[in-house]
Amino acid sequence: MRQHLSPVWTIARRELTTRARSKAFRIASAVLLAGIVLGILVPAWAMSGTARFTVVVAGGPAGLPAAVSAEGAAAGLAVTARPAGDRAAAVRQVETGAADAALVAAPAPGELVWRTTEEARLAPVLTAALDRLAAARHAEELGLTPAELDGLLAPADPRVTRLDPQPDRSAQLVIATVGMILLFVALNFYGSYVLTGVVEEKSSRVVEVLLARVRPADLLAGKVLGIGILGIGQFAVLAAVAAVTLQVARPPRLPGGTVSLIAAVVLWFVLGYGFYSVLYGALGALASRAEDAQVAAAPLTGFLMLAYFGAFTAVADPARWWITAASMFPPTAPIYMPLRSALTDVPAWQTGAAVLLMIVAIGVLVRVGGRLYRGAVLHTGGRLRIRQAWRGAV
């Protein structure tokens, strides 16, 4: 057993070191790291500060500017409100950019002045201030006290009854969606590594030298294993950088189930890579040129894209029968099962069955793909058909 694994590990180590030292891999890793850091920090920094606005108030009671600032604070905004002599003075400040908006209290029902268009966050604050001013005016006409007015304006606080309560899965959905996108990119990215690696060795005749020392099955297994270790290692580094960056950004506390969901994404990446990398390796052996390899792999890439875009329909109704079937069908399970787990409670037996089916499918593909690889890897010239490669392995 140890003697059989030795060539596999040798090939795997060769693939790992060769790919890791390549310029393309280093550039791609640097771009991914920069994208993750900026993708986390920029939105966090943009949302961390409180939005600040300046408003000028013309007319109304003396306490109106303070009331506008209080309304802004209640909405999570920092609104600086200051009085203006009259409407003309307030409009001039808006025109010159000294103020973001002007609130003209009189004549009723009041007026809001903007330089170009309404500011979506500030407009409700100013409208609420005018509503409060109008209510106070009517209350005074009716002889109501400020306390009675507050009672009339107090918002309703009804009891909420949920007949079929469901947990809030928004955070899990975001994680699963990001994981699904990463899975799709990773399966194509590392699968193409296997594909191009096989073609490069065939075109340069390196494979003939390698096959003088190792069996075709060991060569394919080592290539898949080496690139897989490289991919998992790269993802681990990216995940660690993302975790550290999230701590710097001080995100909200993650909900329960997040760790298990991330673990599921990692598990399905490993299983999905094992499934598709063998297919990509076998398809790469059918071609002698990079152009032929891309043509041979086009149906597989197209299938992955269909599965990827189809998975977004699971968000609307994850209980559909075909989504359940897709989450257990080996070719689509790596994309559908993590997303479905984030949207609904998946029975344990379905998860276990999906993993078991995936392992069995990988085992079958290793044998079938290994035979195709063995029958096609030494072929040169035009593109080889699957039937020819199958017969050539006999």
From TrEMBL:
Q: Which residues cross the membrane?
A: 24-46, 173-199, 220-249, 261-283, 295-316, 346-366
Q: Name one GO molecular function term.
A: ABC-type transporter activity
Identify the GO cellular component terms for this protein: membrane
The organism named in the record is Spirilliplanes yamanashiensis
Q: What is its main location?
A: membrane
Q: Which InterPro entries match?
A: ABC2_TM (IPR013525)
Which intervals hold domain ABC-2 type transporter transmembrane? 128-365
Q: Name one Pfam family in it.
A: ABC2_membrane_3
Q: Where in the cell is it found?
A: Membrane
- Keyword annotations from UniProtKB, A to Z: Membrane, Transmembrane, Transmembrane helix
Q: According to Swiss-Prot or TrEMBL, what is its membrane topology?
A: Multi-pass membrane protein
Tell me the protein's name. Answer: ABC transporter permease
Its domain of life reads: Bacteria
